Amino acid sequence: MRTDLTHLNVHLPHHASRWWIGHVVVAVVVVAALLYAAAVLLVLAGRMLL
Is the pTM of this model over 0.70? Predict the structure, then answer.
């Protein structure tokens, strides 16, 4: 078990960096989409109030 874990740890960095890059991209896209949706809702709410 321990040898397997150390073996995995040796090979993790490369995959981990890819994994992180993928998740960071997804997070950025999600945040951008949420900000866009919030802006659209604010504009629509502003128009309705006016």
Answer: no
Q: Cα–Cα distance between 4 and 24 in angstroms, integer?
A: 28
Rounded to whole angstroms, the Cα distance separating 28 from 23 reads: 9
Distances (CA, A) of 22 to 8, 9, 37: 20, 20, 23
Give the CA distances from residue 35 to residues 13, 30, 32, in Å, rounded to whole numbers and listed in that order.
32, 9, 5
pLDDT tens-digit readout, 14-30: 667 888 899 999 999 99
